[in-house]
Design brief:
CATH class of one domain: Alpha Beta
Structural class: alpha/beta
Organism: Labrys okinawensis
Radius of gyration: 22 Å
Protein name: Amidohydrolase
Keywords: Hydrolase
CATH architecture of one domain: Alpha-Beta Barrel
Family: Belongs to the metallo-dependent hydrolases superfamily. ATZ/TRZ family.
CATH superfamily of one domain: Metal-dependent hydrolases
GO molecular function, one term: hydrolase activity, acting on carbon-nitrogen (but not peptide) bonds
Oligomer: single chain
Length: 502
């Protein structure tokens, strides 16, 4: 068993007795676990010594919600709300399946950027229509395994037609265009659960770092029997029930129109609001929703940057935290964020909350944001017993940052400077499961230059093909624009929603 001793470092544990108070000391790693933390741990025989002087050691960051399928669309779109953006990033009229090699490289690129940015755990809501295929899912797992990152990976599902999952969909879209959207019979609840059981059997705890999670896309996109079957399986395997809820005002209107209640209330009434559910976004929640979420002990993956770029709104973070909702931070996909950097999300999440009202006592603290990026994120993945903080017995998932960098000069407050000043440039070393996967800013398992060169060579043909897909789907744009305008203009019950006030 390998032993590593990090000596004389500044340690930010984010858990245990020390919490978010930095202290000086040593950290001993035996195999893949933290064996001891404290002052002067001696010199264990055979251990590799790492000099921690002038270095900060802290838990690896957690990306609580992302989509690897968007990785090749960095910087491609702007000034599009979610309902219009989906037409291009997740087109209704799809092209051929991405070749396996590009599927692998797309996933690997996300893992590479994540690790170099200090992310040691990500939750990938992988979506690969039109079918669920174990071989293709295996390709995604292989990329994460090769990179050395910890990951929860889903195979997201929906079984309600897109026009039936959005307010005013059928009445707005002309019949001749609706006829072009005949996708055949949707997957059944039994069929999807059979697939998920196979995925769990094949990939659960692969390499000690990789897990499959259950991810019905959203309550308005999935039938109740599918949602309930997914929840039952997630509980059996103790994996997250990961879903999108109330990201936009259109979705808030959709819930009221279809069910006569908010989508949070709808989940609650189905028995799906509990400690095992992770809700991505949660922007358009009202006070009743927040109370139910807090009572259930559920988690929210807060995507501050993506919510701003897609015009979704500002999630009511203070009220969610005060209600007892566990918060993690997500980038969302690279296409709606344009980076995989959680440091960017931390800074944005902290700053934007200060614009939600004049009561400065209710603005979020840097300490709260950093907790969301570490232990809170691990909670959303149901992995808080393994990772998210530096505590004896937990897995050795950590990052080391230089404290002599610009971001920490002068050094006033480590936590605040991590949230407001750092962007990942100070990262020197990243460790997952006790293995150093980034050293002096370079990946140890991957030939970065070769991977990036191969991707650059493949992109002209791929993006030209995608441009043709975009052109085919642009015929739907005026109608989804009208759907968006109609829904966002509706006032019925909307004054109750936090999103209207930030």
């Amino acid at each position: 068993m390998s032993t590593i001793l990090i000596r004389n470092a500044t340690i930010l544990a984010m858990g245990g007795e020390q919490g978010s108070t930095p202290f000086s000391g040593d950290l001993l790693i035996e195999g893949n676990r933290i064996a001891a933390i404290g002052p002067d741990l001696g010199d264990p025989p055979g251990s590799k010594l790492i000099d921690g002087r002038g270095r900060l050691v802290m838990p690896g960051l957690v990306n609580a919600h992302t989509h690897s399928g968007e990785t090749f669309f960095r910087g491609r779109y702007e000034r599009l709300p979610l309902e219009l953006w989906l037409l291009y990033a997740y087109p209704l009229l799809m092209g051929p399946l991405l070749p396996p090699r590009l599927l692998y490289l797309r996933t690997l690129l996300l893992a590479m950027e994540s690790l170099k940015g200090g992310v040691t755990l990500l939750c990938d809501d992988f979506f690969d229509p039109p079918h669920h295929d174990l071989d293709r899912l295996g390709t995604v797992f292989r990329a994460y395994e090769d990179a050395g990152i910890r990951a929860n990976v889903s195979s997201a599902v929906m079984n309600i037609h897109p026009l039936d999952a959005i307010a005013h969909g059928r009445r707005t879209m002309p019949p001749e265009l609706q006829a072009r959207l005949d996708f055949g019979p949707p997957i059944s609840a039994a069929g999807y659960i059979d697939y998920c059981r196979s995925a769990l059997a094949a990939f659960q705890d692969k390499a000690g770092r990789l897990r499959f999670m259950i991810a019905p896309s959203a309550p308005q996109r999935c039938t109740p029997d599918l949602m309930l079957a997914c929840d039952e399986l997630a509980r059996q395997w103790h994996v997250p029930f990961h879903t999108h809820v109330l990201e936009t005002k259109v979705q808030a209107v959709t819930g009221q129109l279809f069910h006569g209640k908010s989508l949070i209330r709808y989940l609650h009434d189905l028995g799906l609001l509990h400690a095992g559910i992770t809700i991505a976004h949660s922007v358009w929640v009202d006070d009743d929703d927040i109370a139910m979420m807090g009572a259930a002990g559920c988690s929210v993956a807060h995507n501050a940057v993506s919510n701003l770029k897609l015009g979704a709104g500002i999630a009511p973070l203070r009220r969610l935290i005060d209600a007892g909702v566990s918060i993690g931070l997500g980038t969302d996909g690279v296409c709606s964020n344009d980076t995989a950097r959680i440091f960017d999300v931390m800074r944005t999440a902290a700053l934007v909350q200060s614009a939600t009202g004049p009561d400065h006592e209710r603005w979020v603290l840097a300490q709260e944001v950093l907790k969301a990026a570490t232990l809170g994120g691990a909670r959303t993945a149901l992995l808080e017993e393994r990772t998210g903080s530096l505590e004896v017995g937990k897995r050795a998932d950590l990052i080391m940052l230089r404290l002599d960098s610009l971001a920490f000069t002068p050094l006033n407050d480590i936590v605040r400077q991590l949230v407001y000043a750092e962007n990942g440039a100070s990262i020197e070393r990243v460790m997952v499961e006790g293995e150093i996967v980034v050293e002096q800013g370079r990946l140890t398992r991957i030939d970065e230059d070769a991977v990036l060169a191969e991707i650059r060579q493949a992109m002209p043909a791929f993006l030209a093909e995608h441009a043709e897909i975009e052109a085919r789907n642009s015929v739907f744009l005026p109608y989804f624009d009208e759907i968006h305008r109609r829904a966002t203009a509706q006032d019925v019950g909307m004054d109750r929603y936090a999103g209207t006030r930030g």
